[in-house]
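Let us practice reading a record.
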Amino acid sequence: MSHLSDTQLSQLKKQLLERRDELTQHFEQNDEENTLLGDSLRVSTGELSAADNHPADVGTETFERSRDLAINENLIRERSEIDAALERMDEGTYGICQASGEEIPFERLEAIPWTAYTVEHTPVREVSDDRPIEEQVMTRPPSGAGEGRQEHSGRFDDAQAWEAAEEYGNSDSPAMAAKRDVKDYNDL
């Protein structure tokens, strides 16, 4: 016997089906784009060579591809979790934590209808420890590097810009200046 009412189960099933349809539609609409993500950078960008491009352009393209791949990977995982949740509904085990056997509160299922765990028993997702290879050869800057850089460069940062410009007055017309002076007087 489920702790969820038929109305609650119906509402959650509707949410799951709607989200699965959204994800399916996403992958159908972006099928050509997703196919290109697996191709080489040259093929996906349509460039004959990356040699004539600025390194920042290539870096931007690489970042965009990595981001798109990560998003797609996450959406694929979400869709498989939705399918598993729908399967648990059919089996009658939906809403029961797979780790502890406890009932998952309706409020949690309403927020994440494909979850198979209570908050306390949700598995921790491992964050990759992979770091860029460049970090192995980078050295920290010497202590004191950059301190007082703007102070001695003859420039100022945004925080000091108004104070420096204020010494010379502002561009208010005489009428605006008089109005400001009246307001300042009234504030006393």
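A brief commentary: The mean pLDDT is 77.
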